[in-house]
Write a structure and sequence with these properties.
The protein is an alpha/beta fold. About 35% of the residues lie in helices and about 15% in strands. The chain is built from ten helices and ten strands. Helix 4 (about 155-170) crosses helix 5 (about 185-195) and helix 9 packs parallel to helix 10 (about 325-340). The radius of gyration is 20 Å and the shape is globular. The termini are far apart.
């Protein structure tokens, strides 16, 4: 059921419900502390958590300085922009590394996160697709997963990080896949305020995707998909008019399959959901899913099984295993195959 998210507030409730809720919070805290031990060396980012931060780009600088992410240098080869024939490739020819619930990350202090690092660090590490949940809180769009008490940031703040990265990396193509519970015009307002609207690519249904070089030349380097309100403004694409996906509710590696979940079989782009949830995401589960033999095999078998190229590979805790390098090598091999074709 789709609904608007409200900020967590203490209100008068019956005593039984209060104590039940308190017990649940206590259990959650214990689980969180247990999970926390797996994240040694990662700083908790308090500033900006559950706030209505504005669009001042200095916010990004302050946040990165506090977490130490500004000093991070991604290993060589993790950047898809260094792929052979990158500029000659069509957008649909590349298998993009996508983070599932990108905003829900440990570095920014979210509870029960899907990622270790914030959006900027993810992009620096070679991630080029962000899956983001957008909810309404007090009339404004926020990035929230489940409930705002677990973590929240304004949509504008998240978009600022995307814009800052795109300004630094002038040949990077970024894709946003939104699970949206917000009116399309509110999302558009955030893009307008941040100054990203002019960078959004507009794709016609049924048309071939443009070459990367052409997208860069036109300055249209941001592709946006949404599951609600698609088509209500230019470049705000209905994801299920263009994409199909594999199932996203998987508990163990043995249950991974190529069975189509949402989206029509004729849609040209494939979202390969490759993460485990049992009952929540975790480093241990990500280590199993992102293991080289598991992910490599799934990538290599995908096109044969689905007749579709795995365009978006969505993972949790992408640093587990050798995921960015594995995606780079897979794309390099695909580029060599295309080069060899007459």
């Amino acid at each position: 059921m789709r609904h608007q998210t409200k900020l967590f507030r203490f209100q008068f409730v019956p005593r039984g419900i209060f104590w039940c809720a308190s017990g649940l919070v206590f259990v959650a805290a214990v689980v969180w502390m247990g999970m926390d031990s797996s994240f040694d060396g990662l700083a908790i980012l308090e500033e900006g958590k559950n706030t209505t931060a504005g669009v001042d780009e200095s916010i990004v600088t302050k946040r990165l300085a506090k977490t130490g992410e500004d000093s991070h240098v991604a290993p060589d080869g993790f950047s898809p922009e260094t792929l052979p024939r990158y500029l000659e490739s069509e957008y649909s020819d590349i298998s993009w590394l996508v983070t599932h619930n990108s905003m829900s990350n440990r570095a920014d202090g979210w509870w029960f996160p899907n990622q270790s690092y914030g959006i900027t660090r993810q992009l620096d590490d070679g991630v080029r697709g962000l899956m983001l949940d957008v909810h309404m809180i007090d009339g404004q769009p926020f990035l929230v997963h489940g409930a705002s008490v677990l973590g929240a940031m304004t949509l504008e703040s998240g978009l600022i990080e995307v814009k800052a990265f795109m300004q630094r990396q002038s040949n990077a193509i970024i894709t946003l896949i939104l699970e949206s519970y917000a009116p399309a015009h509110k999302v558009q307002e955030a893009f307008d305020v941040v100054g990203l609207s002019g960078m959004v690519h507009q794709q016609q249904t049924g048309s071939s995707w443009p070459k990367i070089g052409d997208m860069i030349a036109r300055g249209k380097r941001l592709v946006v998909f949404t599951d609600s309100g698609g088509g209500e403004w230019q470049g705000y694409h209905d994801v299920w008019n263009f994409c199909q996906e594999t199932h996203y509710s998987v508990k163990q590696v043995e249950d991974f399959s190529f069975q189509r979940n949402r989206g029509e079989e004729a849609n040209s782009l494939l979202i390969l959901n490759h993460f485990l949830t049992h009952p929540i995401a975790g480093l241990g589960l990500a280590g199993q899913a992102n293991a080289t033999d598991v992910l490599k095999t799934r990538l290599e078998e995908c096109e044969k099984a689905t007749k579709c190229f795995p365009n978006f590979v969505a993972v949790d805790f992408y640093e587990c295993g050798d995921t960015p390098n594995l995606l780079f090598e897979f794309n390099r091999q695909q580029a060599e195959k295309q080069k060899a074709e007459p």
